[in-house]
Amino acid sequence: MSGPQGDTVSGPLAGIRVLEVAMYGFVPSAGAVLADWGADVIKVEHAVTGDPQRGLRRVGPFTVEGDPNPNVEHANRGKRSIGVDMSVPEGRAVVHELARTADVFLTSFLPGARAKFGIDLDDIRAVNPAIVYARGSALGPRGAESDRGGYDMTAFWCRGGIAATITPPGTPGMIQPPGPAFGDTISGTNLAGGIAAALLKRERTGETSVVDVSLLGSGLWSMGHTVALSAQQKQPMVAPKPGAHGAPTNPLSGLYETADGRYLSLVMLQPGKFWADVVRHLDRPELAEDPRFADAAAIAEHTAEAVAILREAIGARTLAEWSERFTGLAGPWAPVQDSQQVLADSQIRANEYVLPAGELELVSSPVQFDVTAPRLRPGPEFAAQTEEILLELGLDWDRVIELKTAGAVS
User: What letter does residue 396 receive in the DSSP assignment?
Assistant: First the structure.
């Protein structure tokens, strides 16, 4: 299918066209991943109001003034935008014409809205039998609640079991998600992967697919190990109290505070293997020969003493000092970083996990091909490519003006 004119885009999905009729964070983030992979993603927005996500300016402690708006750009980079009013026949006809040219139809609309606007599976397949039809939902395509909407907070975070599992006993309410669109972005990546698999199936067999991903299903998948354990053990996983050491029989798996109030996370699941190396890096080599820590069994028996020793030693230096000293440490460890501190992480920068996209820096989607990061392009202004896209369809200027006059397009 044809891509955007005058814009050479590379990637494994170059030449694939995606027609996205979706709002907010979840399904548009799938479109963003597909755009990162090279697809030409055409975003259909309401002809007057656009995607409601464009109006999201207040998130937690942050207020966004002006444009570009990170709340929009993260899930919409690299796309083209067309403003269409699907409530009028002329607008629906435009969407159907676009669907004829597309490889993928991607939507977040609920079943009733899909039927109302003529974009349900049968409607789209009638104009393009070969199209991959992809739906993102809150609660899945089957069951009594399949027509209910939802957000990542409700379906992914709360109903999917995450909130209750990470909230320590005695905590009023629940631990909140770490930021906006947390479950949306994870679920969107799942949906993009499913679409890619459906495109491969179509290429190999000629058969097309309906792809479904829900926030609820993605939340459960992220909790897969925990849910499996709970099913076997017949009890829920319970979060540890804040400040407790991570593992009752392993001093090398837990959090340790540094002199400047930062934290190190050690996750060395074989303490007998790593103990000597750790204490040498702590300038306490004599502890390598201490009989209390001679092997894994002894370490487990004397975990409380080992934790006290490590807390005192690690608390004597700053995180920056430990980061330098631990460069050669054999076991896995990491600094505990917030959403701003990650921007200065040399390993993140070396792998181009954060990249410029116009005036902003955005996190690149996590899959890289041929050891190369995707080229991030800014998100579109509302309806900015309406005329360009209509002309690509073969409409002349008179017809474009007629559609504008009828209110069918922006």
Answer: -
Q: What is the pLDDT of residues 68-114, one digit of tens each?
A: 999 999 999 999 999 999 999 999 999 999 999 999 999 999 999 99
Backbone angles phi, psi at 145, to 5 degrees: -105, 20
Q: How many helices (H) and strands (E) does the chain have?
A: 16, 13
Contacts 24+ apart (CB under 8 A), 199-205: 199/13, 199/16, 199/103, 199/104, 199/132, 202/130, 202/132
Annotation says 184 is catalytic: yes
- Is the distance from CB of 188 to CB of 25 less than 8 angstroms? yes
Q: What is the pLDDT of residues 48-60, one digit of tens each?
A: 999 999 988 988 8
In the set 120, 184, 212, 295, the catalytic residue is: 184
CA–CA gap between residue 371 and residue 45 (Å, rounded): 34
Closest to 97 (Cα-Cα) out of 135, 133, 123, 76:
123
Whether the pTM exceeds 0.85: the reply is yes
The letter for the amino acid at 152 is D
Identify whether the C-beta of residue 181 lies closer than 8 Å to the C-beta of residue 188: no
For residue 9, what are the contacts with CB-CB under 8 A and spacing of at least 6?
3, 38, 40, 375
CA-derived radius of gyration, the chain: 26
- Residue 165 near residue 137, CB atoms below 8 Å: no
306 near 256, Cβ under 8 Å?
no
In sign, the C-alpha dihedral spanning 22, 27, 28, 34 is: negative
For 260, which DSSP code? Answer: T
Residue at token pair 């907010």 = 24
